[in-house]
Amino acid sequence: MYVFLMQRISAIALLVFLTIHMIVVHYPPFHIDFSQIIQRMDQPIWKAIDIAFLLAVLVHALAGAYVVLTDFEKLYKYKKVLAVAAVVIGVLAFIYGTMTVLAFTPPESVVSFSG
Length: 115
Prior knowledge:
Layout: H1 2-26, H2 34-40, H3 44-70, H4 73-76, H5 79-103, H6 108-114
Helix pairs in contact: 1-3, 2-6, 3-5
């Protein structure tokens, strides 16, 4: 039941984050060019949004993969192993992605070009 709820909650979060992404990056009047995207990625609020987006994607994808794999009778007996594997992969991917987002700083050429 928890996997079902995680899947649904992360789906709602994905709708919110995808809407924000599409509006800010792709549609006027908010459409921004590449240099503005680089500057946006340096702001703490956008880093937090990107990290939350990453979490929603990982939860949704890994919960979905877990459900699909446990639907097979041959794999159902490995349910706990698959759950542990999904959690380990999710935690490692989240740590790696978060470190990448937090470490990002725009190159000097982009900052001086746009400023």
